[in-house]
Structure prediction request, 169 residues.
Amino acid sequence: MADLSENDKENLQQTLAQTGFRPLSRSERRNIWIHDYQEQDIALQSWARLVEQQGLELEIMLQMQGLLVFGTMVSTLAYAQFYVNLHERMYRDASPETADFLGEYYAALVPPEDQPEFGPEGLPVIFRYAHLRDVTLMSAGHKVKLPYWRGKLNQVDAFVVGASAGEEE
Prediction:
């Protein structure tokens, strides 16, 4: 808020007071982190960290409530770039506002390159989503193929690194 004018600061404070919004305290953020951390598989978090920070791509199978998800785990940047490019082709000419909105949305998903290992709580950053490319979903004998997929890491029941759907291209 340091670079806002006094008038802008006053307007922002009035808006926050009207909406009842207040930023979370450090202890509230820490408690939320502890709750989220308990839901995480640390080994899967480690793989997600390698994918995000080093651009590693790895074949993986995730099991989520009986659903099997096969694919190549990729960074959030790769996932977002696919959809930015797709929406540019689909909407740029007919609806540039939509293309801009979707581009901004997907860009906001990407963690900063210089993201610290530790967040504002003084605790390690938790990766919340896995992003997979060339995905095969399997459930009860049904199979669906998708170009990309995004799922919550804390919803994964089991995983196998190096697994594939067993199909030859």
